[in-house]
Specification:
4 strands, alpha+beta, 113 residues, 37% strand, four-stranded antiparallel sheet
Length: 113
């Protein structure tokens, strides 16, 4: 891919994702182009939830934590990650983050393998 092609591709991706801090290989740029071009038909609105449970120790003794991870492809190109937990002693917590940058999207797909 020559320099002009890569610039056009990067500009196209940049209309949907933040590419300002990302160095992209030709393969990564091509993948992201497909991702943004197919987003509405393939990804938008799709959501997956994973749950797990594990035991841990605190100053009060042993506890069991139930965790829930939800990844949702948002209306605009991006992924929202929601995390929540509940311990059997009643403690709870939650957090959320949006991935709207090129490197973050690439890392999310890499971690899904």
């Amino acid at each position: 891919m020559d320099r002009n092609d890569k610039k056009r591709l990067r500009d196209h991706i940049g209309e949907h994702l933040d590419v300002s801090t990302s160095r992209l290989t030709d393969d990564e740029a091509t993948f992201l182009k497909g991702f943004v071009d197919d987003y509405d038909e393939t990804y938008k609105g799709r959501s997956t939830t994973r749950e797990r449970s594990h035991d841990g120790w605190s100053s009060d003794g042993r506890f069991t934590r139930k965790e829930q991870f939800t990844d949702t492809f948002t209306d605009e190109v991006g992924i929202r990650q929601d995390y929540s937990y509940q311990d059997d002693d009643g403690q709870t917590g939650q957090s959320s983050r949006d991935i709207k940058d090129a490197r973050g999207i690439l890392n999310w797909f890499r971690d899904q393998r």
